Amino acid sequence: MSQESLALYQAMSTLRAVRRLRPDPIPDDVLKRILQAAAWAPSGGNVQPWRIVVARDPAIRQQIGDLYRPQWQVYGHNARKAMEQLEGEARAKRGRMLDACDHLGEHMGRAPVLLIFCFNPKHMAITDADLGRASVVGGGSVYPALQNAMLACVSEGVGCTLTTLLCYEETAMKDILGIPEDWYTCAVMPLGYPVGGGHGPISRRPVEKLCFENQFGQTLEL
Amino acid sequence: MSQESLALYQAMSTLRAVRRLRPDPIPDDVLKRILQAAAWAPSGGNVQPWRIVVARDPAIRQQIGDLYRPQWQVYGHNARKAMEQLEGEARAKRGRMLDACDHLGEHMGRAPVLLIFCFNPKHMAITDADLGRASVVGGGSVYPALQNAMLACVSEGVGCTLTTLLCYEETAMKDILGIPEDWYTCAVMPLGYPVGGGHGPISRRPVEKLCFENQFGQTLEL
What is the ipTM of this complex? Predict the structure, then answer.
């Protein structure tokens, strides 16, 4: 395997949600490389139907943090209840994750940078819009850019995590950020240098559980 | 900038749609690394609500190719018409792109590997499901995996492109691949070694056109 491949796989295999962030600023050149990574992402018809509002102003960040806190409290309360179904190490692990989520819920507005990803569905060919089931294809022209940004964060030593709860507050978010009528929000990504170890080991299903050969459910032999 | 960052940015900045693919097989170890890259991607609640059917059987690939051809013919016909609005180099460039799309439209089934990405919306928290506008958030738990797979392809020298037209043939696709009732399709990604130069230069808007400071539309100074 090439050195380039190794570096790429190193970033991918250590990209984890980093939810405890220091308030220290992110230097402009680092931030610019993270945004450039997003800009390189492919999109349907190369239309790039997304924009990022980079919130660095403390007052703007605080307003967003104040919207996020109660949303997380509701979601987190339910997640704690669901956690009671778990036992042993799985439960302890989930508990530690939810502690970190609680921390982010309290401190979202103090992350030095919030990236608010916006999109315009008029510029998307959403081929699964009318199938009578949840549509996801529009996301195919947006979330590759988020993934690029997050991989760049790993490489730059910047903590990050993808949140979508603020879609519940889209009207208020559009108001705070001056987002035009035909643009919408699809993620808020807080960035900051990590309080703890930052990116590192991840826990994922093995390829064999996720990938099949020729028929759904059929073992893939590689 | 670190060597790791350079390698990562090299892959991101040369990931382009590669639509002319040789029928030569992809070695198992290469394919496994591409699938592992997908498996590393983050997803909401770490649920990984996606699966990949890896179609390598020629008969299965041909069936999928036969579904894709007429879908592309309709889409491509409209795209050629829209191209007539363009002039000069922009028009010539679009024409070359559509020629490559036509090639893929004819030969999709001859790519040695087709990755069919499936998802289950029951395992997703789709926070923008009820906002009265196109929903994309479900894609946030799937398309990061596709982006990882495509970046791995760059690094492995394997051509790829993300297609979503076969959502229009979802019922037939589910039948061909034995996809259960509560799982759906969100992309078909043909893989193969490139006929031409493969991945390489890309054309994207500059960061300054895509990213704003604090308010949508406000210049970001970095």
Answer: 0.97
